[in-house]
Amino acid sequence: MGSDGMFGKGILKGLAVTAKEAVKPRLTEKYPEEKPELPSRWRGAKFVLDQEACISCGLCAMACPNKVIRQKFAKNEDNKKICTEFVFDRQYCLFCGLCVEACPKNCLHMTQDFETAVYLPQDIPQDVLHPEDETAALSAYGTKPAPAPRPAAPAAKPAADAPKAAAPAEGGGE
Question: 57 with 104: CB under 8 angstroms?
Fold first, then answer.
């Protein structure tokens, strides 16, 4: 009875939605050819440290809820505390920014980098004190790293040892 009139209305509503969406501007970005425009408050996956401003207080590591920051400290010749190791285990990082907020000197920052995929697990930790080492470990889009070199074959034993190993044992063959 009433179902005949409803069938036509549903199709018309669906066609109206489709027509409206067909004329809207496209939201799809052509990544990786075009890099996306990220918001200014984007919390990227890389960290940058201003080593001259850092007072090696360790507050960033204490503020981290997942304890992904590994730091070691030493004293220099002026008896000033300096950071000798500063590593982020990014696989466990929430990118919450609490470490950046805890820094009293504002020397720790998150970048807008988001292409941080790596192929090997040992490349995941980020050494903040040596950022030049990190760029080689990060993967490029669509490329795979060169295979690791195979270990060298063990050296062959001298020929004098070979007859001793091949000689039958004395004492009979019971």
Answer: yes
What are 142's two structure tokens? 């669509």
Instruction: List, as one string, the DSSP characters of 69-120.
Output: EEEEEEE-TTS-EEEEEEEE-GGG-----HHHHH-TT--EEE-S------SS
Question: What is the model's pTM?
Answer: 0.58
pLDDT digits (tens, 9 = 90+) for 23-78: 888 878 888 888 888 888 888 778 999 989 999 999 999 999 999 999 999 998 99
Tokens found for residue 10: 């549903």
What are the phi and psi torsion angles at 64 (to 5°)?
-70, 120
Tens of pLDDT along 119-146?
Answer: 888 888 888 888 765 555 455 554 555 6
The DSSP output letter for 129 is S
CA distances from 82 to 1, 71, 99, 102, 103 (A): 84, 10, 18, 18, 15
DSSP SS3 for 47: strand
Which residue has 């990220």 as its token pair? 38
- Quote the tokens at residue 114: 């988001």
